[in-house]
Amino acid sequence: MVTRTVKADRYEIVAVVHTIVWDITGRNLLLLERANTGLMDGRHTLPGGHLQPEESLGDAAIREVREEVNLEIEQLTPCCVLPYAGGVNFVFASAKWRGLVKNAEPDHCASVGWFRRNELPETVVPWLPKALELLETGGWFHDFSEH
Fold first, then answer.
1. Contacts of 41 (CB under 8 A, 6+ apart)
2. First to last CA, the chain
3. CA nearest 42: which of 52, 51, 32?
C-alpha cells in the first residue's frame, strides 16, 4: 500500500453523493425530509451522504441508498456534478432497484416519500431542480460556488 502525505496547506473539499431513485413509472422520485442533522433540516433531498475513504463514488451512492431507504440499487448511472463552496455533489440516477422503501434512519430523517418530478415540495434542497434540469437536457455540470 502506498502512503501519501498531504501538505497542510492543500485545499480539501467535501465529496457528497446523491441518487435520484425513480419509481417504476419513471415519473416519481424518492425524497427524504432531513431532520436532526444541523444542515438543511426540514428540507427534502435525495438519498445520499459523504464519500468514505477508499470508496468509489458509485459504491458510496449504493451504500447511502441502502442505509437511508433500505433499497438495493441494481443499476446506477452518473447524472451530474455540482460543485459548491467547499465541496462537490455527485449525483447519480437509478430506476432499477429492489426492496421496500422505508425510513432506515429515523434519527436523521423525518419522512420518506415519492414525489412527481413536476410537483416537488417547496422545501426541496436548492440544487435538486438544477440536477433534474441537467439530467433532462443532457448537461452534466453546474457550479454553485460561483453564486
1. 34, 35
2. 40
3. 32
Rg (CA), the chain: 16
Query: Tens digits of per-residue pLDDT, 85-101?
Result: 999 999 999 999 999 99
Cα–Cα distance, 141 to 143 (Å, whole number)? 7
CB atoms within 10 A of CB 23: 15
d(CA 126, CA 147): 12
pTM of this prediction exceeds 0.85: yes
CB 44 within 8 A of CB 123: yes
For residue 96, which phi and psi values (nearest 5 degrees)? -120, 110
DSSP single-letter state for residue 26: S
For the segment 103-125, what is each residue's pLDDT rounded down to a tens digit?
999 999 999 999 999 999 999 99
Q: What distance separates the 2 farthest-apart alpha carbons in the chain? A: 49
Q: What beta strand segments (E) does the chain contain?
A: 14-21, 28-34, 44-45, 48-50, 72-84, 87-98, 109-116
